[in-house]
Amino acid sequence: MVNITGINPSIILDLRYASLNNFMKQEMYPSNTDFSFLRLPVAKALLQAEEYLEQKGLGLKIFDAYRPYSVTQKFWELVHDERYVANPAKGSGHNRGITVDLTIIDLKTKQELDMGTDFDNFSDSAHQSFTALPEKVLSNRILLKETMIRFGFKPLETEWWHYSWPNPERFAILNLSFEDLKKATH
Asked: Which CATH number among 2.60.40.1840, 3.30.1380.10, 1.20.120.1630, 3.40.50.1110 corresponds to the domain 2-184?
């Protein structure tokens, strides 16, 4: 596991679960969390995606990456719907450090490109295949999807922001706190 901003300081973090701005409406991570983690090959691929977008004057903003297993359990207590929340019996890509929730930003303004919905929108309009959106929104979603696929990620159909590294069974489910991971990676 590596700190995302340690491998690429230009990636912006907006860790929604370290705030009240999420579907749980509570802090799921410590509010002072200003770092996040991914497995090394995943972080390297994300760096390539960021560099690719930088050539277009764009960058990445991360909403979530590694997530302790205990947080996945809390999500499941609230939302029993595998389209949107991982069943703890299986664990998740977030618990394995191979999934990232993100969007694209304009590097000059730091504003997010319009993706039609906010992060953690549990409606059909957030699905990858939903097309009843303005052309610019569809174009922005396509750019994100094509960029992430180009660098080895797989999209989740029900969430335009969710991308995972393939072969999750190769990576163990972790339940380490952010502080424990931070200590272990320094």
From this structure: 3.30.1380.10
Instruction: Name the one residue in this structure whose structure tokens are 């396509």.
Output: 142
Distance CA 86, CA 144 (A): 22
What the block records as the tokens of 173 is: 């489910």
- Report the 10 Å Cβ neighbour count for 160: 27
Could you tell me the pTM of the whole model? 0.93
Residues 6+ apart with CB under 8 A from 79: 23, 85, 122
Helices (H), 97-156: 135-150
Q: What is the pLDDT of residue 34?
A: 80
pLDDT digits over 137-146, tens only?
999 999 999 9
Name 10's Cβ contacts closer than 8 Å, sequence gap at least 6: 50, 54, 59
**Residue type at 148 in one-letter notation:** M
